[in-house]
Design goal:
single chain; alpha/beta; Rossmann fold; 2 domains; twelve-stranded mixed β-sheet; two-stranded antiparallel sheet; globular
């Protein structure tokens, strides 16, 4: 029997939808409802685990995937990684560029109220939020030994995750693919990017359509990053001329590796002047998590990167905490995310393991932080390798971040030696100066965001979506 005219008309929108976006997601991964949110999602959401081999046992890596609200079949797929090392990418999901804005619940301790985020990066891209390495956020292992990892091990594991993820979502394999992140992801992103490129060159299957990467306020090099804090503090009127000049003279501009006891003494004066400052955004107050108080301890210290590169969120080595105690990043309010992601109804809705299996969610995981080892040095050779092969790179900095100050990032991008293709200029949103940029040969761009802190999309969401969408679309910023 032929279908009726009405039946045919009803089929048309469905056929159009299938033609625009062919869904082949793994069974049970689709999310249709979330506690705290009322209404329909602007696009399709999926979440679950990808399991890779550990040594011994298994590593279960949790992801939350959001299809683009614009054109999921054509828009880029972007992987997002928060830093730490050991911090959850739900930091980006909840507080930066995820699909929802999280508002405090009606009563203390109640679930947050979710509203649509008008500046979500899923407006123009498909985006994967991955809790990496294993043990971070909702990712877990059946053997705690797998929580011990390194930079290179993390890159390898995440590459294996990507290969399996694209097998689960083959409809996105032809989309342009980008890797993005912030803070210690300044290490995660280029090391992973090189893993992906090496896999492409070896014809690893499935073949990822990798195009480039974005890094926000990312650590890169102990000398450039470590030498930027004191000049930045002086330029921002956080230390006096006297403190700056004596530090400059006694340290011989080697703040990252103090050459003398007098240099160490003067850097102590710098640190003392900065105690209590929100190092992630010097314009914002320092939030104190419940049960904590203002402290002069190294928890609130400004890292100067002496010797080996340091993590940005790890606790003081003399801390007496344990893995069972939640870790709160100094000055950062994580209440909404902690409340939401430790609710068992939320975990069930997003297909995450219960706390009895995966552990309680914390913005940064002590079980990883205390076992993490850095086994890489400067990221500059990675950037040279990747950009020389034609991969695009956008390096952006909130210009009021004290954790990874922009002068160090500007200096190392310049040190690559590429010719300038676009002279230093302002860029704009809504006819207002939003920051400054400089373009280089080899598809490299350095960009600042005016008034933004360490987490740029949290500080300046409108501006962040603007440069993100323009760059992904190959349009001038």
């Amino acid at each position: 029997m032929l279908p009726s005219r009405n039946s045919v008309l009803l089929l048309v929108p469905v056929l159009i939808l299938i033609a625009g976006f062919s869904e082949a997601a793994p069974p049970g991964s689709r999310i249709d409802k979330l506690p705290g949110f009322v209404g329909s999602f602007p696009s399709q959401h999926y979440a679950g685990y990808v399991t890779i081999e550990g040594k011994p046992g298994k590593k279960n890596l949790f992801y939350y995937f959001i299809a683009s609200e614009r054109s999921p079949s054509k828009d880029p797929v972007v992987l997002w990684l928060n830093g730490g090392p050991g911090c959850s990418s739900f930091d980006g999901f909840v507080y930066e560029h995820g699909p929802f804005l999280f508002h405090s619940g009606l009563t203390p301790g109640s679930l947050p109220i979710l509203r649509i985020n008008p500046y979500s990066w899923s407006k123009v891209s498909n985006i994967i939020y991955l809790d990496s390495p294993c043990g971070v956020g909702l990712s877990y292992s059946d053997n705690p030994i797998n929580y011990a990892t390194t930079d290179l091990r993390t890159a390898s594991d995440t590459h294996h995750f990507l290969l399996k993820w694209f097998e689960l979502y083959p409809e996105f394999l032809s989309n342009p693919f980008y890797i993005s992140g912030e803070s210690y992801a300044g290490v995660y992103v280029p090391t992973l990017a090189l893993e992906v490129v090496n896999g492409i060159e070896k014809a690893a299957k499935p073949l990822i359509n990798f195009k480039g990467y974005l890094i926000g306020n990312g650590v890169a090099d102990v000398v450039f990053d470590g030498n930027s804090h004191v000049p930045f503090a002086h330029a921002m009127a956080l230390i006096s001329d006297d403190i700056f000049e004596t530090s400059q003279r006694t340290c011989e501009e080697k703040y990252y590796d103090p050459p003398s006891s007098s240099c160490v003494a003067n850097l102590a004066k710098v640190r003392q002047a900065l105690v209590g400052l929100n190092r992630y955004d010097i314009l914002e107050p320092c939030y104190q998590s419940p049960g904590t108080s203002f402290s002069n301890s190294p928890e609130f210290d400004i890292p100067m990167f002496p010797g080996k590169r340091k993590a940005l969120s790890t606790r003081d080595s003399t801390s007496s905490g344990s893995e069972s105690q939640p870790y709160h990043v100094p000055c950062v309010n994580d209440v909404e995310a902690t409340t939401w992601l430790n609710d068992e109804a939320v975990r069930k809705a997003i297909h995450a393991a219960p706390a009895s299996v995966a552990g309680a969610w914390a913005i940064c995981a002590v079980r990883v932080m205390e076992r993490y080892s850095s086994d890489t040095d400067s990221m500059i050779p990675y950037h040279l390798n990747l950009t020389s092969k034609g991969y695009r790179a956008l390096i952006y900095s909130g210009d009021h971040d004290m954790a990874v100050p922009y002068p160090g990032t500007q200096a190392w991008t310049r040190s690559l030696g590429y010719s300038i293709t676009e002279e230093w200029r302002s860029w704009h949103t809504e006819n207002q100066v939003a920051g400054y940029l400089q373009g280089y040969d080899k598809n490299l761009t350095f960009l600042t965001v005016k008034g933004a802190g360490h987490m740029v999309p949290q500080s300046k969401p409108r501006e962040a979506l603007h440069f993100y969408s323009q760059w992904l679309d190959y349009k001038p910023i």
